[in-house]
Amino acid sequence: MPTSIRKSRTISLRLSEREFDALKQLYAANGARSISEFIRSTMQPLIAETSREGRALELKVQEIDGKLSILDGEVARLTHLLGGRHEPR
């Protein structure tokens, strides 16, 4: 993780002694310089996955919107062919 990004937010949580000891061993074994660095690097894939999921949902909504526009055009065309009037939205 780039160290040039200024960190301005903090979080806190309570851990048992066992959890804290395990976390200290994990960060050292994974080459992190601190528990904070280890936690940040560990949560980055989760944040990235959430962003991808959000983008996928946005693309799906755009796809559905496009299909609805096509369907609306087809309804208007068929209504016109049947001699009725279709009021555009």
Please tell me about this protein's structure:
The chain starts with 16 loop residues before the first helix and ends in an 8-residue tail after the last helix. It contains two helices and no strands. It has helices at residues 17-29, 35-81. It is 67% helix and 0% strand. The protein has one domain (17-81).
Question: What topology emerges from the helices and strands here?
Answer:
Elements: H1 17-29, H2 35-81
Shape: rod-shaped
The mean pLDDT is 82
Which spans of ≥5 residues are poorly predicted at pLDDT below 50? none
Distance between the termini: 49 Å
Q: Can you summarize the main beta sheet?
A: none
Number of domains: 1
Q: Determine the structural class based on helices, strands and strand pairing.
A: mainly alpha
Task: Determine the fraction of residues in helical runs and give it as a percent range.
Answer: 55-70%
- What is the number of strand segments? 0
Rg, Cα atoms, Å: 26 Å
Which features would summarize this protein structure in a list?
mainly alpha, 89 residues, rod-shaped
Short description:
The chain is mainly alpha-helical. The protein has one domain (17-81).
